[in-house]
Amino acid sequence: MAGNNALYPIPHPAKKPFVGNLLSIDSASPVMDMWRIAQELGGIYWLDMPGMPVIVVSSPALVDELCEEARFDKSTKGALRRLRAASHGLFTSDTHEATWSKPHNILLANFSQRAMQAYHPMMLDIAEQLVTKWERLNFDDEVDVTRDMTALTLDTIGLCGFGYRFNSFYREGFHPFVDAMVRTLETVQDRRGLPLEEFMMKKQLAQQRKDIRYMHTMVEDIIKERRESGADIASKPDLLSYMIAGVDKKSGEKLDDKMIRDECIEFLIAGHETTSGLLSFATYFLIKNPDVLARAQAEVDSVFGTDLTVRPTYAQVNRLQYVLQILKESLRLYPTAPAISMRAKENTTIGGKYTIHKKNMVIMHALALHRDKGIWGENADQFNPEHFTREAERTRPANAFKPFGNGQRACIGRQFALQEAVLTLGVVIQRFRLIDHTDYQLKVKEALTIKPEGFKIKVEPRDPMALRSRPGVALADAAASKVAGALAVPMTTRGARHGTSLLVLHGSNLGSAEDLARQLAQAGEMRGFSTTIASLDDYAERLPANGAVAIVSASYNGTAPDNAVEFWRWLDSADDSLNGVSYSVFGCGNTDWASTYQAVPRRIDEKLAQLGAERIHARGEGDAREDMDGAFQDWADALWPVLNSRFHIEADANAAKAEALYTLEELPPPQTSGLVESLGAVALRVIVNDELQTTTGATPSDRSTRHIELALPEGVGYRAGDHLSVVPRNSPAQVERAMKRFGLSRDAHVRLKAATGRKAFLPVDEVIAVERLLGDYVELQDVATRKQIGTMAEHTRCPVTQNALGASTGGDEAAAAHYKSEVLMPRKSVLDLLEEFPACELPLAVYLEMLSPLSPRYYSISSSPKVDASRCSVTVGVVSAPARSGRGTFEGVCSNFLARAEPGDTVHGFVRATTADGFGLPDDASKPVIMIGPGTGLAPFRGFLQERAAQKAKGTVIGDAMLFFGCRHPEQDFIYADELKAWAEDGLVDLYTAFSRAGGRKAYVQDLIREQAGSVWKLIVAGATVYVCGDGSRMEPDVRRTLSDIAREHGEDSATWMAGMLVKQRYVLDVWASN
Fold it and tell me: Are strands 354-356 and 361-365 parallel, antiparallel or unpaired?
């Protein structure tokens, strides 16, 4: 049996020669066919598909293993990868790609339960369009349920996503975008990877390319219009605003317009396809189960009330528990994302005997999983919303219900989808009788998702009198929202300060728990406590015994939030007594994920008690599906009397003298510029700023290279080889020159106004110091252009000066030559020319318009996070030399800005992955490397060597390394000499140094490479990657020529060999042009 089964002991159906199991799976119904085979072969089997085996898993025990994120991850093979031509984003990206991590990090909080309240008015807007259409139907009109639900979900994601109205309920057909999208999805689904497929589908693929261009253009125009409108999150609280404004905390970067475009398209594809299928299936089950429909109507009537002119509120929607159960049961029987592609991170075994290789495609078949009789009972194929009572969810295994994917790759919009679906089903049930006039028999249509096909019903408005006679309706109509109690200390009172310590700790990914923690800390402050608020990680291993500790924490897929991971690990390993610690815990959760509901706060509460801490107040629980704020207020309301009693605080301590609600403090203008905000730069604190060159002794250097270490804010990380982008400020001397030239005092302030219809990068319509405008916003030292000189001439009345300026602006060769010799080569700026020609009467406003925005400068990071991830260093060559113009000294803007920074100062910047493909250490530390970096080109290689030293210290096998470093003189600018020599003595690297001005023959790095040709070639043959960092105009071409000569001497065609090294990313450059 094993001989006929390549993946034995995994079962497989009979296959045919050449095509394997291709004919076992119909391209029109792959999900249902896989379910049929699972019913025959069991919870695991494999299919022999063209080019690869596909393993299909639905056994709950085996799915449990697939859900272990340390072993398995989402796979994008097949249809998802083919969809990347249309959009490469959250849905279609692999987990390691920035196209997943950056938007995921930015948007995660915008899909939390707490964020749904902002989308509620927009969701309700579209839901009301649906019911208005249905209310206006004639008695004999049919409702195409799938079509209308598709229109609803498309219009909802269009409005909530990027403020665009597709107006699907006002069209005969769909918007052209939808038609293009549907054709694209159908083409993706039709492709099977067969021989000659592209030829056979030539016409269809041409149409797909046309459709994709249309979708791209339309969304790009929407993004462009939004940017030009200047709308922000306050005026347009939709996902597009969040994507434009959001910054990825880990990389410090924003999303570019291509990523935003692709995310918009993916939201439309994934967001409307899945939710419309869910609502269509739920409607089908309601008409086939009148008892369920009657119970749902009773719930809706009691919550929404009788007055159809009163719009349901966000809070009311979240009270429709039975409607939510109906939707979840619909997702169980027909999950609209029914098959989840996965892959093993390494070769592994599941079930103790089934081998899964990294190359295998694994399908977690959710539809079959959801009908497993061992979990769902003998009637698993029958519709029963009781499967999703809260008690049933709590007792069910964690991975028995997987309609939204798994772990961190689970659908980011799942809360959005459920909120929209509950609202829509609620208003439909409230207003209509659903009539199954054809006795519809379910037929499932498959594309990227599944939906009922040909599903049509009729609807009639419900009898208003029947609505009013429902028990409980009067209560719903009279319901009043709960007024905050525990946290609402009257604003006219503040408790007398007794100073009892109250430490409030939070564990939060999406911000909800942190927000509640801040409310608690503020309320404690008002009651006279000395409060401190921090993350749980900040207090791992150091919970105080004085005062009280209040913890507010959530769970993230059953694991600790990002800022509670260290605390969680400490609790698991702690054996120290926590006697004397007084604590209470409040947990945030969502019963939609019943198996992990309150898992983390419950464990924290129990473990603290086990370790000897005293629980002074019972743990509270807040459910995002209910009134979490109210539950939190109830818990906190009961906490204050406990604390008063525990710490002997007088009951009347809160009755203090009234104080004003607000105080006002005049502040100086903000220190960050618009450039800082637009780039998403973060504050970086200077820790170290040391001179690396030797400026004393017998041969002192007259130049400067600075070693600068900066503290990184939480959430900002980097890799060895990355760049730090620094936002500079012009030097005070340059700013003072400009202000003096325009006759302005140092305290001068102005207000700029922009011409109608024109975009400005400078701050307009606000009072701002001219010193800030010139220091933080514009380039003062750029070489003047001929156009700028022409503008100066236009603002000059003196004929002598006019002629002098005009000599560079004409269209003839003489003017070009004059400009080159008098302006370009001496590198004169507009400011230089204004000083040279004092008769020019250029207004300040025109001068500002002429200047370019101040740009960030990029420096290679010269450290490794494996040494200290909380800080990074840069190696800065300070540019300072006599100006070519002959007027004073030219100083590099950013290098001198950094040189002036002192420890404790703040600069602004962000980490940027190097744009040089492959410029990072190999993942395999045993791979050899050759590093070539004269001067400050050494910077990334110091980070590389730090990283390898840290790996070696942990016992990792480290590959051979050669470093070629060049500078002027060993006693002047041999930077990091002691470190490099120590690493060489330790065997970490072979160090070769060239000195160009140390007396005798000048030597450069290419000369050293020639001298070590044999060793260099040996390492290259062994697979070494060659890295070059530094001057790209002279040094790198010389290095390339030397290496090519060595290759030719070893029998290679030098041009072909070098081209191959470049293609394979084994000759990798991070270079810049020298001035």
Answer: unpaired
Q: Where in the chain is the domain with CATH 3.40.50.360?
A: 501-654
Cα 939 to Cα 860: distance, rounded to the nearest angstrom: 6
Judge contact between 1014 and 1054, C-beta under 8 A. no
* Residue whose tokens read 């590959």: 959
User: Could you tell me which CATH class the domain 733-851 is placed in?
Assistant: mainly alpha
Residue limits of CATH 1.10.630.10 in the chain? 98-335+392-475
The angle, 0 to 180 degrees and rounded to 10, between the axes of the packed helices 414-431 and 116-135 is: 30
* Catalytic residue, candidates 67, 160, 264, 411: 411
| Residues forming a β-bridge with 74 | 342
| Rg, Å, the chain Cα set | 34
In this predicted model, which residue has the larger pLDDT, 883 or 465?
Answer: 883
Structure tokens at 868: 């200290």
Backbone angles phi, psi at 177, to 5 degrees: -60, -40
Q: How confident is the model over 775-802, as pLDDT tens digits?
A: 999 999 988 888 899 999 999 999 999 9
Instruction: Retrieve residue 1020's tokens.
Output: 């290259």
List CB contacts of 265: < 8 A, sequence separation 6 or more.
86, 87, 89, 181, 215, 216, 219
Three-state SS letters, 496-540: CCCCCEEEEEEECCCCHHHHHHHHHHHHHHHCCCEEEEEEHHHHC
Residues in contact with 391: Cβ distance below 8 Å, sequence separation at least 6, in sequence order = none
pLDDT above 90 as % of the chain? 54
| Nearest alpha-carbon partner for 547 in 568, 519, 524, 570 | 524
- The catalytically annotated residue of 274, 275, 591, 801 is 274
Condensed to tens digits (0 to 9), the pLDDT of residues 850-877 reads 888 888 898 999 999 999 999 999 999 9
Is a pLDDT exceeding 90 seen at residue 229? no
Strands of 906-912's sheet in order across? 857-860, 723-727, 906-912, 682-691, 704-711, 871-878
Per-residue pLDDT band for 943 (boundaries 50, 70, 90) equals very high
* CATH number of the domain located at residue range(s) 672-728+856-915 in this protein: 2.40.30.10
**CA–CA gap between residue 835 and residue 1004 (Å, rounded):** 41
DSSP code of residue 406: S
Q: How many CB atoms lie within 10 A of CB 195?
A: 8
Evaluated on CA atoms 1011, 1017, 1023, 1027, the torsion sign reads positive
Q: Strand, helix or coil at 582?
A: strand
Question: How many Cβ atoms sit within 10 Å of the Cβ of residue 322?
Answer: 19
Give the separation between CA 909 and CA 327, rounded to whole angstroms.
47
Whether 967 is catalytic: no
656-666 as b/e, with b when 16 or more CB fall inside 10 Å? eeeeeeeeeee
Specify whether the CB–CB gap between 705 and 876 falls below 8 A. yes
Residue 553 CB contacts under 8 Å (≥ 6 apart), including other chains: 505, 506, 507, 508, 513, 536, 560, 561, 564, 585, 586, 587, 588, 600, 601, 604
Q: Which fold has domain 929-1072?
A: Rossmann fold (3.40.50)
Domain 98-335+392-475 coded CATH 1.10.630.10: yes
Kindly give the residue spans of alpha helices, DSSP state H, lying in 698-809: 732-741, 770-776, 786-794, 799-806
- CATH 1.20.990.10 residue spans of the chain: 733-851
837 is catalytic: no
**Catalytic site residue from 404, 432, 529, 995:** 404
pTM above 0.90, yes or no: no
Q: How confident is the model at residue 477 (pLDDT cuts 50, 70, 90)?
A: very low
* CATH superfamily to which 501-654 belongs: Flavodoxin domain (3.40.50.360)
pLDDT at position 671 over 80: no
What is the chain's mean pLDDT, rounded? Answer: 86
Query: What element of type H or E holds 35?
Result: helix 30-41
Is 785 catalytic? The answer is no
